[in-house]
Amino acid sequence: MSNIQLFEKAFEVDFPTEVAEMVLNRISDVYGAEFTKKYAGYTDDAELAQLACTVFNGLTPADITRGIMRMNSEKWCPSLPEFRSWCEQGGDWWTADMAWAKAMQFESDPATPITKLAKRTLDEVRQVLSQEGQKAAHYAFKDIYQDYLTRAKEKGRVQEMWVKPKAPKQIDNSERNRTGIPCPPELAAKIKGLGRVGGTA
């Protein structure tokens, strides 16, 4: 397999063109001339729809519904990445940016609530964070988190909060220094008798 084939998967898009066109039509209806001005650089509708498919890839019907509802209250025409962020915000899952912000709060204060997905991603980029700083770690975190998020959504999982594992029970001094109860003499004699082979003569 060539290097190019290895990277081709990253460019696969399966978002429906018809849905992308519906979203673009809705944005155009809501924002009118502002939409025309913002997207004037695209020579035809097919090119813009294909770009929309690329940007919206991985979004669910519930995500698109959330984005459309948000659009109803926004004054400014969104870029395609902005519309995607509207789709992802306020849903069941944290967005990558929200997860990063919460992860940085968690680093400062481990009592801060964090999701399992954000904690797992933070653990994976902690070395980058310590060696190269927040900027490099932020880029890595967003990519890794988004990959995990897409997989989790595809499997129908729900977001769960991380719970710190309970530490193993420590044996305190009172248990460590506990003394045994002596065996009653009659029981000790019976036990001693069991050890004899062949019984008494």
Strand portion: under 5%
Number of domains: 2
Write down the overall mean pLDDT.
Answer: 84
Which sequence of SSEs, written as H and E, runs from N to C? Answer: HHHHHHHHHHH
Overall structural class, as computed from helix and strand content, comes to mainly alpha
Helix-residue proportion: 55-70%
How many strand units?
0
**Sheet with most strands:** none
Quick overview:
This protein is 62% helix and 0% strand. The protein is an all-alpha fold.
Can you offer a commentary on this structure?
- The protein has 201 residues and is mainly alpha-helical.
- The chain has 2 domains: 3-88, no CATH class; 96-154.
- The chain contains 11 helices and no strands.
- The protein has helices at 3-8, 17-31, 33-38, 45-56, 61-71, 80-88, 96-108, 116-132, 134-154, 173-176, 185-194.
- Helix 7 packs across helix 8 (116-132) and helix 7 (96-108) packs across helix 9 (134-154).
- The chain is elongated, with a radius of gyration of 31 Å.
